[in-house]
Automatic annotation (TrEMBL):
Organism of provenance: Pseudomonas monteilii
TM spans (from-to): 28-52, 64-86, 92-109, 121-140, 152-175, 187-209, 229-252, 264-283, 289-307
Keywords of this entry: Membrane, Transmembrane, Transmembrane helix
Record has Membrane as a keyword: yes
Transmembrane in keyword set: yes
Protein name: EamA/RhaT family transporter
Amino acid sequence: MTLGLLAAIAATFSWSLLYIFPGLVGDYSLFDLAVVSYAFAGLGSLLVLFAYRSEVRQLRLNDWACAALLGFLGYIGYFFLITTAVLAAGPVIPPVMMGSVPIVLAIAGNMRSASVPWRAIAGPLLVAALGISLVNLSVFDASRAAVVLPTASLLLGLFASLLAIAFWTGFGLLNESALARRPSMSPMLWSAMLIFMCSVEMLAFIPVGLHLKLSHFASHPSGLAGTQALIVCGLIQGLGATLAGAWAWSIATRRLPLALSGQLIASGTIYATTMGLLINQRWPSPMEALGTALLFVGVVWAIHAFYRKQTRLQTHGEASRVRI
């Protein structure tokens, strides 16, 4: 379980970088960053697939189809839904709604596997949910809140946000099942398959992004000049946050119940908030500080609840062997 916890922490830390890099690439858009990062992630996954070439030869079509589906649900489709939500409903409502993903995933995971009694995780879930709400609600600004968007646009943004929550919840549940059906497959190989298929899907979605005018590359006044930050951030995001993050999450998924690993995603909010404050060189607001503290308490409380159950199971197993 300890290795699974470390892997989940590493995965959520790497994913928290996704909240930082968009502010470091200058005039380039989030879509430009995604294209560059998936280009590097695709190249990295190809190297991993070559290293596992003997295992790759034994893969079946349904293995690749499953990886493609999961890549679409958890990465490409999720990315475009979030982008659509922000474009339609503004930059405030979608992030607030997406803050519920760890809680929804933890509840869905425990509903399926009943890995821990509900009374043991009800407290941690409520505390973490309150913390996530406070951190996300801190992005509201009175001046921006006064801007009224068309009702149809708001409804589209809300629908896209809800669909994004469903996508990531489905990804978490299906990814856990896929790894369980492939107990002998290396988490690194599985992650490389998933990210490689994501890179292929991103190639297919480039025309969609161009049609939606999500790219600033073509209209960038300096052309190819000034792309150093985009390339560096894309390299780190592609190989670190995307490929290595997927690998760490696969390890965590195999070693932890989804009810715990899902809630650990919330710790990414702590990392992202901390790094954001350091970059902006400011102290947290009272709401940010209280929300982050509550989120930390909820996550630690959840880990303690799962460790306590594991200890009881080990003690019960040892007692049974003694009686035998």
